[in-house]
Give the backbone structure.
Amino acid sequence: MAQPANDAQHSLDRQTIPGLLASVAQRQPTAPALIHGERVYSFAELNDAARRAATALSELGIGPGDRVALWLPNVPAWPILYLACCHLGAIAVAVNTRFRSVEVADIVARSGAKLLACWPGFKQIDFLSILAEIDPAALAGLQTVVVWGDTPSTLTPSTLPPSIARLKVVPFERLLARPPSERSRAAADAPCNIFTTSGTTRAPKFVLHRQGAIAAHNARVARSFGFNANDTRQLLMLPFCGVFGFNQTITTWAAGAPLVLMEIFEVDRALALIERHKITQLFGSDEMVDRLLAAQLDLHGGGDVAFPSVRWAGYAGFNTSLNDIVARADKRGLKLAGLYGMSEIQ
């Protein structure tokens, strides 16, 4: 009786990230996978966009083993470019949007990234000013910059920061105009993610993961937590660039459920999205939960359940002054589950 279980285990470990998404897209092509503002991507549309981006990245010289630096807030370009990298056997390098010139230069240079994705017009983060502080020699390995969103009207080849002035600048939407790739080089053993993690050295350490490990881990999480396509709706308050938010994303899709994006965490915006989309699961830090509870109390008072649609929320404890967060949330009708993770093991 043990052999079928071993076979199933082996089969799960041989899964790929694009294969995980494609299987859901085949079962439920029109079901929503990604919601960003008013834009809703079905699983079929997300799968198609990833294949189109894979074609475009290949034409830009990205192939197996090449590194693509994703320095973006939570916008659809991040997972689409990530999935495209997986199709090509390339490696997505997660660059935290909190990093500034020293960290960005170090990570892009040390990883050997050939392409950098960013959002020059994002109001909350001045990407261009950060790039302007970087010595062009530090980004000598870059060949292309992909830009998401509307770029500033002043952004022209002559006004680009010196660190990227020589590079080809390509709007993200242009990538999606290419035909979808017909062949995928996705493989369970292919490396696909580089995350940064703190350590005893001054510079962030790199952690490399392969597709099969990520796909299997998140499929197991979705099954263990009981996430499913019928009654699971998740809000992504955490950044794609960290394993906490990244695994929430892949786990949600492994369950065939929709993920609602927040570009960055904003309390009022989160409250509105929870109510609008009837969110069933939240994941975040203890401070995020504390701020949500306080804001909801200010808006509605303390008589009702804080978030009626949310069945439970997972949190990570970082602030020792919030050790009572579980008890306080419970009094408001919000069940919290403590979670732990690290870049090395997801």
